[in-house]
């Protein structure tokens, strides 16, 4: 009794503080990475063109074109990818649904064997499988989770993926354009704002990783800055050659 009482406060504390971060990233991960992609790609595009000693108007037009092209490309790619994935999952669910209808006993035994492999007593595993298999839709959901690793009620939406990708990419790509749209004629304000944005995106990524915010922010700043520096150098080389 004394052992139980001594352990009770520990159990209570463990229960109250036993929380985990969202390892799937939720909405944060795709939104941040979409914005980061738009920021890096458009910054690199603009610095590459600026390296060729062109006018600020040309840089703005290039940045706007990069924003539109990249956002539409991201949206189309995400829509196609998620729609294809959803169609594949639906096809596999149809296969499982047919198997449950044609071979219900075999599917029940398969489910029982799965529970046995996880340490459940054979008799109990078979009883649980029988109970769960009484409802065809419930049986389909359980087989989908156990065999395919998916939740039939939580499939991704192609439209949501496309819209969110478009919006996050466009927001990131807009950042290096803002100084020019507000009247700047030099490149450095755009680069400075973009680098600050990269650090901020990297710091946000730390919310879904085990790294510190300063490490993630600095890493993304250096990678994005390196991409901009390389494309600027290429722009200077090509501009001198033409």
Notes on the structure:
- The chain has 10 helices and no strands.
- The protein is elongated and about 75 Å long.
- The termini are far apart.
- Helix content is 79%, strand content 0%.
- It has helices at residues 2-17, 28-50, 56-102, 104-117, 122-132, 136-148, 158-174, 178-181, 188-205, 213-241.
- The chain is mainly α and 242 residues long.
Largest sheet: none
- State the separation between the terminal residues, measured CA to CA: 87 Å
- Taken as a percent bin, the fraction of beta residues is under 5%
Instruction: Specify the overall morphology.
Output: elongated
Order of helices and strands: HHHHHHHHHH
Q: In percent, how helical is the residue content?
A: over 70%
Radius of gyration: 27 Å
* Quaternary structure classification: single chain
Q: What integer is the average pLDDT?
A: 81
Number-wise, the strands total 0
Q: How would you classify the helix and strand content by structural class?
A: mainly alpha
Contiguous helical run count: 10
Low-confidence runs: 1-8, 10-15, 22-26
Brief overview, please?
This protein is mainly α and 242 residues long. The protein has ten helices and no strands. Helix 2 runs antiparallel to helix 3 (56-102) and helix 2 (28-50) runs parallel beside helix 10.
Layout: helices, strands, pairs:
Layout: H1 2-17, H2 28-50, H3 56-102, H4 104-117, H5 122-132, H6 136-148, H7 158-174, H8 178-181, H9 188-205, H10 213-241
Helix pairs in contact: 2-3, 2-7, 2-9, 2-10, 3-4, 3-6, 3-7, 4-5, 9-10
């Amino acid at each position: 009794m004394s052992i139980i009482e001594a352990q009770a406060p520990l159990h209570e504390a463990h229960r109250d503080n036993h929380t985990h971060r969202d390892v799937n990233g939720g909405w944060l991960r795709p939104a941040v990475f979409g914005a980061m992609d738009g920021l890096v790609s458009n910054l690199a595009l603009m610095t590459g063109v600026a390296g060729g000693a062109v006018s600020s108007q040309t840089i703005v037009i290039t940045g706007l074109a990069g924003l539109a092209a990249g956002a539409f490309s991201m949206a189309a790619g995400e829509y196609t990818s998620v729609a294809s994935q959803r169609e594949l999952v639906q096809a596999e669910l149809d296969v499982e649904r047919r198997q449950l209808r044609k071979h219900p006993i075999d599917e029940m035994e398969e489910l029982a064997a799965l529970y046995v492999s996880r340490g459940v007593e054979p008799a109990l595993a078979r009883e649980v499988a029988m109970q769960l298999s009484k409802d065809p839709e419930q049986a389909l959901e359980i087989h989908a989770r156990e065999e395919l690793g998916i939740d039939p009620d939580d499939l991704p939406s192609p439209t949501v993926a496309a819209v969110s990708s478009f919006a996050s990419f466009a927001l990131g790509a807009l950042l290096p354009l803002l100084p020019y749209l507000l009247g700047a004629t030099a490149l450095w304000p755009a680069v400075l704002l973009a680098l600050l944005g990269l650090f901020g995106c990297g710091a946000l990524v730390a919310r879904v990783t085990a790294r510190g915010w300063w490490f993630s922010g600095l890493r993304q700043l250096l990678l994005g800055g390196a991409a901009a520096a390389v494309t600027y150098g290429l722009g200077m080389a090509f501009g001198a050659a033409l």
